[in-house]
């Protein structure tokens, strides 16, 4: 059982409680009644509690632990902090850029928040969890070839405060192109896709490979990335020097325009032991020219 109230103790009706804990046959969400109360049920008898993310319109999200069979847990909702700024290049604001605040605490995770810039390149996040660290960036897909956004670390202020981060300066980007091949000589299935993701961010570009396995990404910020091709029955070949232990992803760095990458996939199952964060960080030090299976 849980209860959701405002900072002055008034119950909040219509708040949503989302279960964060992977708890098997358990309610995944519940809404509060007029008394601000909600109930979650589970068939698990071995759980001591559930971590619950609480969201309500006009308030910053909150995280509480609801104890099974214990007293009612109360979420006191803050109004939240405001974070604002501008996305710009060469002093000019950039419109229609999707800006993301990505929460940095993986153990007490609020998720991420996104807003689009206005015609002057300005953005504003309201009801942001106060006194939390985030990574702030403009997404690759929304910026396109207009430039690449840095990922700034910002900390939201106290409740009911405002933080102006100033300009998020968009800089140069690069192109990354190449070909995915299968070591057994088989042809790639139609509609096979390749995904490039910025390291430690949810900033993604996805592209469908052509019949020969070719891909070409444009507007890629100079940063560290993973490349992923999901193909049942195949994994990244060890011929790719930047592959992780599971042979699931290829890791590397984009430093400049790069053409002719050869990414090799081989038949086989994924490994069961994942690489550590330190190992992955080491892999991302190599440019993709060195991390892949070579250049064609």
Describe this structure in words.
- The protein is mainly beta.
- The chain is built from three helices and 23 strands.
- The chain has helices at 140-143, 277-283, 288-291; strands at 2-6, 16-19, 29-31, 37-38, 49-55, 62-67, 73-77, 81-89, 92-93, 98-103, 112-116, 122-128, 133-138, 152-155, 162-169, 173-182, 193-198, 204-208, 214-221, 224-229, 234-236, 250-253, 258-267.
- The protein has a four-stranded antiparallel β-sheet with strand order 3-2-5-6, with no helix packed on it. Strands 8, 9, 12 and 15 form a four-stranded mixed β-sheet that branches.
- A hairpin with a 2-residue loop joins strand 8 (81-89) and strand 9.
- The chain is globular.
- The chain starts with a strand and ends in a 5-residue tail after the last helix.
- The model has no long low-confidence stretch (mean pLDDT 92).
Descriptive keywords:
296 residues; mainly beta; four-stranded antiparallel beta sheet; four-stranded mixed beta sheet; 3 helices; 23 strands
């Amino acid at each position: 059982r849980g209860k959701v109230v405002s900072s002055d103790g008034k119950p909040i009706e219509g708040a949503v409680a989302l279960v964060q804990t992977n708890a098997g046959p358990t309610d995944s969400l519940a809404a509060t009644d007029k008394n601000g109360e909600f109930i979650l049920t589970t068939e698990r008898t071995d759980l001591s509690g559930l971590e619950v993310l609480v969201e309500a319109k006009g308030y910053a999200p909150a995280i509480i632990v609801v104890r099974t069979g214990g007293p009612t847990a109360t979420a006191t909702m803050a109004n939240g902090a405001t974070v604002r700024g501008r996305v710009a290049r060469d002093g000019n604001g950039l419109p229609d850029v999707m800006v993301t605040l990505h929460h940095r605490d993986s153990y007490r995770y609020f998720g991420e928040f996104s807003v689009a810039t206005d015609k002057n390149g300005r953005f504003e996040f309201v009801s942001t969890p106060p006194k939390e660290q985030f990574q702030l960036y403009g997404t690759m897909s929304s910026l396109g070839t207009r430039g690449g956004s840095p990922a700034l670390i910002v900390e939201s202020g106290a409740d009911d405060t405002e933080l102006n981060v100033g300009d998020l300066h968009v800089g140069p980007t690069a192109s990354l192109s190449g070909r995915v091949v299968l070591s057994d000589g088989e042809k790639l299935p139609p509609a096979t896709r390749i995904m490039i993701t910025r390291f430690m961010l949810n900033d993604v570009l996805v592209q469908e490979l052509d019949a020969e396995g070719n891909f070409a990404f444009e507007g890629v910020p100079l940063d560290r990335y993973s490349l992923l091709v999901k193909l049942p029955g195949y994994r990244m070949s060890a011929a790719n020097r930047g592959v992780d232990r599971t042979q699931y992803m290829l890791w590397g760095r984009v430093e400049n325009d790069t053409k002719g990458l050869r990414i090799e996939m081989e038949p086989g199952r994924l490994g069961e032991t994942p690489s550590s964060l330190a190992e992955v960080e080491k892999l991302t030090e190599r440019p993709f020219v060195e991390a892949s299976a070579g250049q064609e």
